[in-house]
């Protein structure tokens, strides 16, 4: 055993002793927390449903309607303050009891998290629902309160509540948890104090709604054909705790039908298990028509064309005459499904294939076939948006604690641990000194430390495997400062990009290890993912996810036949801003990219943008700190002039580069424009045109006729706000991201208004979106 192995063994012993010391000293606190967990789990195991009345003073049971046992949130969070809504907003509603009348607010801290520990544990699907009702609890009549809702470290949605909303908001998600603990977090974005009224978590045993790969966001759950005003049907009538809404914008082109007959839900083989009252009502076309048509807007903001699933629920509730049949087809976004027939009082659910929203809309029609004697019917339907939520940084909660932990170590415990630590550290130093005196070659360099870390966190590729993956380096798809990039194929069919370190590369072994370490702990949907790496002496390679549409620089070239349209460019800007904002504000410590440019913005097959090349990235100990460096950073045209003059590098250096990137997207021009008398910087080219107010000369001429002028001006203003000569004048990436999302929404609104109205039998408008109730 060499000196390095001996030293590593002592370090392991040190860590184990630390843990034993902490565990022994903290046993009483652990026992107390265990008892609380037992009480919590006992109540939950009775139904599989955890219902939390946030801000309530004591546990209670809703005996009138649901029989749900509500718990206070004292055992789930240790921060925040309890409040109640103003008397004029206080009410006891069916299915919700008094839960909406109390709330917990979080005036302190950027992120406050609820800690949920369901007894079923990890590797299970859960239905999570959060309730929000401002109710003028502070008597300030806020016109709007806005904050972000996170699922662990992953963005879930933005809560927007106002005094004008007499009802409440619900945000829902079906999520496959890979951990025993689930965090639901409220993040202060500077637009009001975050708050929450209620939180539900339901274990979905054997549910058809589960997904191990991506989460499902319920966008609408419509109970059609009811005769009451808009109302709800929920748990315990619905075993999956869905909230069914009646009569969502029904038009005069349909008629309601219903029955009082019993529908055997329990005996049915339909796994969706809809409540009987939902299946007892339906709609059908009026006046001998043979088609039902629906349209629902699902695409918003930074995700205008999301992927979605639709569940169509049917039950024949009219007894047909002998020989009559009801047969119909379903057409969903131009995809037609085979004909279906119904059996009397027997539920039938049709789940659609995975589809992508067209122009932000889900459109479907149900049409009677030529052989059908009866018109089509529809009892209920659900639309789910698919969301990729394991794209955040799983180590973020470790780096930036999500909540104040209950039962933290006491002062004596800390003192004991420190004492043991000092003794062990002194022992290790002594051993190391003696090993060194004995001429043993022990290295504690950063590269060795990184190597140990890498081997424990990821399965590396051998060089032989790299050769096989790339088919002996057959296809070159790029080249950079690190080396050439080759197309590869893994055994499971996935395409990858393999970046091979060249012998003459300016970036050597240290940079290689730094890039691997960074990519293994930083994960986001708008950052290129590392698949693996090879580290064999002279042969080093990085294996990335393959980006089918290459880089943004090539896409913007004049000779590119597949020109990016205006909306695609705005979406790319939002994607890139999201990735950069995550590096700056979602990571602790913050990460500065240092070389943001269009060639480092890679595009997927669906033109989703991801930031690449973290080889020169630096992490800073404190958010406000700058870093003085003599290492060249950046590419001509993108380099922050303040950094170039002073050597002070910080997050605002990336903001400057992002502003140049935005100018590229708007103008189609490179950062340095070639001319007869040399190169002109893009800002020098834009400035006189801005002074003349000549936006048409600024916009890429290939986009003429399709760009809304107001939207173009807003995008340009955002770009120019990023590039003042001094960093203190530049905004934070979170502000830039918010402005870009508004710009994209403006463009989408303009496109919709230009297309004009579309005739449809049923329109589910944005004012009745399922998260606004």
From TrEMBL:
It comes from the Eukaryota. Keywords: ATP-binding, Kinase, Membrane, Nucleotide-binding, Phosphoprotein, Receptor, Serine/threonine-protein kinase, Signal, Transferase, Transmembrane, Transmembrane helix. InterPro entries: Malectin-like_Carb-bd_dom (IPR024788), Prot_kinase_dom (IPR000719), Protein_kinase_ATP_BS (IPR017441), Ser-Thr/Tyr_kinase_cat_dom (IPR001245), Ser/Thr_kinase_AS (IPR008271). It holds the Pfam family Malectin_like. Residues 471-744 form the Protein kinase domain. CDD domains: STKc_IRAK (cd14066). ATP binds at residue 499. It is found in: Membrane. GO terms for molecular function: ATP binding; protein serine/threonine kinase activity. GO terms for cellular component: membrane. It is a single-pass membrane protein. The chain crosses the membrane at residues 409-433. Residues 1-30 form the signal peptide. PANTHER family: OS07G0107800 PROTEIN-RELATED, PROTEIN KINASE DOMAIN-CONTAINING PROTEIN. This is Protein kinase domain-containing protein.
